[in-house]
Design a protein that fits this description.
The protein is mainly α. About 45% of the residues lie in helices and about 0% in strands.
């Protein structure tokens, strides 16, 4: 997601200025951003969020969806 937005921004800047730009995306920064919700929930809510598999405690719709059965 961060690389995608960086690339789009770089392409936009190149279109406007004619000059290229460098983008950097670190995995640690991206992970820190994505893990912010459990950190805040634990710190300010007093308890860690329960393990929920592919579901999410605060984002809806999110997670597993039932589909039709597979046909052989």
């Amino acid at each position: 997601m961060y690389a995608y937005s960086g690339i789009l921004t770089a392409l936009y800047k190149r279109e406007k200025s004619g000059k290229g730009t460098r983008i950097e995306v670190t995995m640690l920064e991206a992970l820190t951003e994505w893990m912010g919700y459990p950190l805040y929930y634990t710190h300010f809510g007093g308890t860690a969020p329960a393990r929920s598999g592919p579901n999410h405690a605060a984002i809806v719709p999110y997670g597993r969806y039932e589909t039709g059965t597979a046909r052989a």
